[in-house]
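Priority: medium. Attachment 1 of 2:
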């Protein structure tokens, strides 16, 4: 069964096309990575799939729910970690996660808060105002709110931002274990290393259109995901195939400072 299914998903703002005919299927238990330069449509895709934004055309199904007809059912069923979103500055991590527990309605809230604070290394900051936390600590709190209610499907936009290398490794391990238990994770990133290391299936989106999909484990010999996607972009007839996939020092797909929609 597919955890996520889309057909010709399109979003336009006047004459601007933010997403152009996206069709994909993500099976249950998949760790799916959606790669693309900033501004390519990754965030728009997540916002449509999580019921935050209505498409102009096309259909989608998330865990059997229609995010347009019943966005509340989708939001209740999934975990969401948007890019560059912090916990409320006027709450402590404990207060914020208690609020998440109240909204989600799960049991043993205090036990789960203690478990996730320990797992993500912010247990000593549980009663510190979020405005006084470092960027990395705030990211850890947001990761906790994503997984704390044990959803079957999680959407994550750039999960490793602001995390130190040790915590990045621990979060990667958790994401793998999460999918090994049969759950599904939809990961949006422009960092190739993250996709190559973590994902069981990777797709690339460019100029608001889905270009190609590949299982990183199927690459032959010295073939790199970057080379495969560059070839696919060139064959797709992109208006700017030379820069559609960029191999910078961090092997990222596009400039990190651009606005990603």
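Attachment 2 of 2:
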């Amino acid at each position: 069964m597919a955890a996520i299914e889309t057909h010709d998903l399109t979003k336009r703002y006047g004459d601007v096309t933010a997403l152009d005919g996206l069709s994909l299927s993500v099976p249950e238990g998949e760790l799916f990575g959606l790669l693309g330069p900033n501004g390519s449509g990754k965030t728009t895709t997540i916002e449509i799939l999580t019921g935050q934004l209505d498409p102009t055309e096309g259909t989608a199904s998330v865990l059997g729910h229609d995010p347009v007809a019943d966005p509340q059912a989708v939001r209740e069923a999934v975990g969401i970690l948007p890019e560059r979103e912090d916990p409320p500055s006027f709450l402590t991590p404990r207060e914020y996660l208690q609020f998440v527990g109240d909204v989600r309605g799960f049991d043993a809230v205090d036990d789960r808060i203690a478990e996730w604070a320990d797992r993500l290394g912010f247990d000593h900051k549980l009663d510190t105002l979020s405005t006084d936390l470092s960027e990395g600590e705030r990211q850890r709190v947001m990761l906790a709110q994503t997984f704390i209610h044990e959803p079957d499907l999680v959407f994550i936009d750039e999960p490793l931002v602001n995390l130190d290398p040790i915590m990045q490794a621990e979060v990667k391990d958790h994401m793998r274990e999460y999918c090994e238990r049969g759950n599904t994770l939809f990961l949006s990133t422009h960092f190739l290393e993250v996709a190559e290391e973590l994902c069981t299936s990777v797709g690339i989106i460019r100029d608001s259109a889905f270009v190609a999909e590949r299982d990183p484990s199927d690459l032959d010999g010295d073939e790199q995901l970057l080379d495969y996607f560059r070839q696919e972009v060139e064959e797709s007839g992109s208006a700017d195939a030379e820069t559609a996939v960029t191999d910078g020092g961090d092997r990222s797909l596009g400039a990190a400072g651009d606005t990603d929609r």
